[in-house]
Design goal:
Elements lengths: L9 H4 L1 H8 L1 H20 L4 H25 L10 E2 L2 E2 L5 H27 L7 H24 L9 H5 L1 H22 L4 H28 L6
Antiparallel strand pairs: 1-2
Length: about 230
């Protein structure tokens, strides 16, 4: 008798591979957006200044989509232990929390931007047209992730808007501390191509890792009350 050979359960045995497969479109879009500075270095003679301005501008994109997520999130806020004016946050406080996030995150982004301009902004003039196209790719990349993962994979049903309040900070702070160190190193080297390529590669790897970790967290919430 011929015995049927069971199909390998690669996805069950390797959850990281399964997650990457499900996030394939958003991961690809993220990588394409992160390659825009590399194109700027190799084809447009970018130095460290436009790269650092471009990476700072990602704060604006991340904040914009986080506001959309906070508006749509349907998870319970009961276990978030978040307070507003000394009392636990309720679902009715959504608008107030969004307004507070815009102000709080906006101040953080402004201070970060001033620091970047002071450190790296000497040659910022004349870069708006080049940075505009790169920023468009970045916006589309995050938009693909928002539509395919947060909405398309029903992540919004499993996460509370209170949990989303601090989420951008975790990603931005880890990523940009590394970028600032790499940018300072590249600037000290006189912005040679190899240093800029290392900077872009490092940022892409960190961004991809944080992207997968973020959505693994959403995946772990499936079937749980939050």
């Amino acid at each position: 008798m011929n015995k049927e050979t069971p199909l390998p359960q690669a996805n069950e045995n390797n959850p990281d591979k399964s997650l990457i497969e499900r996030l394939r479109a958003s991961t690809l879009a993220l990588m394409v957006a992160n390659l825009m500075p590399l194109l700027g270095v190799l084809a447009l003679n970018w130095d460290v200044t436009p790269i650092m301005i471009f990476y700072w501008s990602e704060n604006l994109v991340v904040g914009f989509y986080n506001v959309l997520k906070m508006r749509l999130a349907q998870g319970s806020v009961e276990r978030s232990n978040t307070t507003l004016n000394g009392r636990p946050v309720q679902q009715s406080d959504r608008r107030a929390m969004i307004v507070f996030f815009i102000f709080h995150y906006g101040m953080f982004t402004l201070c970060h931007g001033i620091f970047v301009l002071v450190m790296f902004g000497a040659k910022f003039q004349g870069l708006f047209s080049e940075l505009g196209l790169a920023l468009l790719f970045l916006t589309v990349s995050h938009g693909v992730s928002y539509l395919r993962n947060f909405i398309g994979r029903n992540e919004y049903q499993r996460v509370a808007f209170t949990s989303l309040f601090w989420q951008p900070y975790k990603r931005v702070i880890v990523m940009h501390l590394t970028i600032l160190l790499g940018g300072t190193w590249a600037q000290a080297k006189g912005s040679p191509v190899f240093a800029l390529v290392v900077l872009v590669t490092l940022k892409t790897m960190i961004d991809l890792a944080l992207h997968l970790l973020e959505h693994r967290k959403f995946q772990s919430l499936q079937g749980m009350q939050i």
